[in-house]
User: Fold these one by one.
Assistant:
Number 1:
Amino acid sequence: MNREWWRNAIVYQIYPRSFNDSNGDGIGDIPGITEKLDYLKELGVDCLWLSPVYASPNCDNGYDISDYKSIHPDFGTMEDFDRLLKEAGDRGIKIIMDLVINHTSDEHEWFQKALAGDEKYREYYYFRKKRNNWGSFFGGKAWEKVPGEDMYYLHLFSKKQPDLNWHNPEVYNEVCDIMRFWLDKGVAGFRCDVINVIYKNSLDNGKRRLVLTGIENYLSTEGNHDILRRLRKDVLSHYDCFTVGETVFVDPAQANLLMGEGRKELDMVFGFEHMECDQRWLKWFKRPYAPERLINALDKWQRNCEWNANYLENHDQPRSVSRFGDSEECRKPSAKMLCMLNMCLRGTPYIYEGEEIGMTNGDFKKMSEIRDVESRNVNDILVRFLVPKSIRQKMIFRVTRDNARTPMQWDNTAGAGFTEGVPWLKINGNHEWINVEHDSKRENGVLPFYKKMIAYRKQSEALQFGDYKKLSSEKGVYAFERSAGKNKVTVILNMNSYEEKMPEIKGKLVLSNYNRENTDDMNGIMKPYEALLFEE
């Protein structure tokens, strides 16, 4: 295995709108990110992944791009971006961009020209007189009528996100040009949005399903693989950069086809199987969380993937401590346990803003507080099916993407240190006691533990590049080993909310989320969410 820099990088995802507002308009911005670079450097971050900062009407908070080579005024200017890039580089921090190339905004110049009847740009998208039966990822049909015409266009996501036609060579050339534009500036790569659904084999009717009818026509097609190989050869191979793909509905074998070293496509992918361990069919239909299902999913990907992009939360997922831990009495130990889990698995670790202080799901009380387009669409569908308001809100508040998008909690002031204005999304009321300022002053805080765990990983050959081996996972206690030559690390995690028996392990205790110096007084029993790391 090659040892490229990104394999051992600590990647920190920033959702710019919610990170830090420098001008008091209630919206996080690029100068706000620059202000926090020293904080990120001290944390141990090597690379920032920025969710979209491009020009956009913000139907889907930036994932509907109207100009790939411009910065949205809400976030600042291109000069602000260039300064961020330089200041980050001066601190040894690289930056990757979000690359959204399955679709554009319907306000993009290409689509506007297509609507005006320009035949060249009509071929950039899928326009048809007859719709097929495909469903949208955001609910409802995947086709929208063109105003004033007997014509429809395809949108796998929002109707304001028309899909690009990758059968058209001009689309490929345009995207290559966009990628070179940012790589020439000095960005270190891309996180590629829904990258395994960009190429449609055909527009035939699909097999009827409860959701996403038609998916067999565009999921991980051979044409998709060919595009990724060409982008690697024609663009990416000429820069010191990496790509990580958001890839839906893939198992480890399919993931390896997208990012295996010999494939020359992506460098790594985000799997979703562990994100589905607490749901039935769809994320909106939850089942009780069981640690065993999470452990089994993680172990499966650890054993079978060439390299993993490890994460427990992001801008689309609920907060991990609310989901896999305890957001109340055991918030700190469970947040630290999840930190040790993420930092010790084989692969590149990704941290999402606020995860390092144990931020929890939002405290939404009514639908008017929700900004997420997906959640609003689902609510509308549930209303049509006469689902009672109390059930609708319970379903949505638990899994809405806005749970991860509440503003970063820097201090306990009214604006949480995020803004001096009115925040674009409701600030969680628990910012009064869950915030960076409060946590950094406490030796037993979540933030100090993250710093300690990151520092340890960076000096551990076993954690950086070692092999993975599961030792046991009985009753929700996950024990695994990482080894590289004579360097061996053993990790034991009680992922339960109650005490559980500890498996017998040899070695010296090095890290503990309960500040243990040894295991002499444990009597073989682990506390709720206890995490232990041993060296041999």
Note: The chain has 16 helices and 22 strands.
Number 2:
Amino acid sequence: MMKFKNYMPFVVAFAVLCVVILIIRMPESPIAKLTQWFSSRVEGFGMPVFTSPRCPPGYTFFTDKTGESFCCKGSVNPYSHVCSGAPCALRPGVTDPVSKKTMPFCGDVMKQLWGSAESQCPKAYPNYALSGKCCARGAESDGARCGDEDMRTGAFCSLDDGAVGEKHCSTEKLKESVKCPSGLNLVATALNASDIQKYPAAKGKSVLRCMDSFSSCFVDSSVKQLQAAGVFTNQEDSLKLNNAVCSKFERTEVKKNIAENPLPGKFILRSPGKGNVCVDDGGGTAPGQTKMQLKTCDTRNINQHFVYNHETRQIVNPNKNLCVDDGGGSNNGQTQFHLWTCDPNNKNQQFDYNPYTKMFSNPHKRGGQMCMDDGGAAGAKMHLWACDAANPNQKFAAERIDLPVTAAKVPGLMMLQNPFKQNLCMDDGGALAPGKSLMRMWNCDKSNINQQFTYDPLLKQLKNPNKNLCVDDGGGALYSLRSCDANAKNQQFVYNPYTQMFANMNKGACMDDGGALVAGGSVFHNGKCDATNMNQRFKPILL
């Protein structure tokens, strides 16, 4: 018994040692992580680690029995310290003890992998990060992710699908080789729910289009890229989409018809694509009292009312007799916008508006290359920033608020074309009896009686005179033709020629074509009125 007691310390020590070894061999244990951290910094330490910035992506750092350090593309036996895959050496000229050949140098492997990935990055975001992003300014020191400034400003794109709202590098790279028809601007449009329902591969994808307020076409290479991915491959959809590509684009009957003043009347400045937000002067009534920013649109809010003086190039709040002023800076974000005493000689108050790009530029700052910018982030103040037609923070759509839309008149027999969907017009579905077919978009055809309508501004009715039936919103369901009834609230639509929208004022809703980009892809319904929603825009074409 006494002899056994003499051996007890050794038994306990051996048991503790066994437990320690087991814990170290558990990769997620704190001791293992500490050991891995230590081993990644000390050459020859015998514990393999699972990640190391010195190894190429997909490789594991380890040391062999001699203390030589390697990176293993595969798994490492923690007991024998042998790589089951293809190793590379952390210094040049190391001989493989098994094959007796010189092992590849990990630095060369890293350059090869990095160069292959970086070649997929667009010119705007040329720097590859291991997270699968391409960054504008560069990756962090370990190469794992884009720098904080790029992540904060969204100056990156994803090589894979990425998160919702992130730019796709393939689309950005495609933009580099696209040249739009004269007068049209390049935009990327996300495919909508009806397209995704028909083609699941469309999820998260976008299509490049060249467009302005009047016309649009699909970029040929973008269409081919989508079809290669299994989108719009149906024979009918493919034919219609390929007939609307930019290589076949012809601008017919497109009249800009822009008055000398590109911004007539009183208006609010809506930020397209950002929901219901508009430029707001902050509420101050004295010069420089408050800074300008985006706030919820409200046509009754005098802080959002502006007129444009084409002679002096000034944007004026007519309720306060003060002018929009950029604060005096000429560099990115140097000063913030506010209202100031109007002075036609003040260069900080002079702005040119381009109705096609929807951008305000100060002609006196850096050769007219500094534009009004909303700052991007929620609550940000407006400032000048280098003009970029692809920057959504610099887009401002003027929406007139000083005309009674109830007086709007669309004379004569007409077709209603969606100006953002080339050669697609409103079609009643073809039935001759009430409610037997649903309204949809179809290929424009002046001889098609299903696309011929008249508008009565007094009764507020859209009528197909060939069938003596009126457009009816279905009581909040789907649109169809019904027997005309001057008292039916489902048939009363007010047309606004400036926004090109039909609104049912009884319901506070607008006519919406459902969103599909191809003929027959969706049906008409009521949608929340949104002047930036291209599915709610209808341009009369007189017959």
Note: Residues 339 and 424 are 43 Å apart (CA to CA).
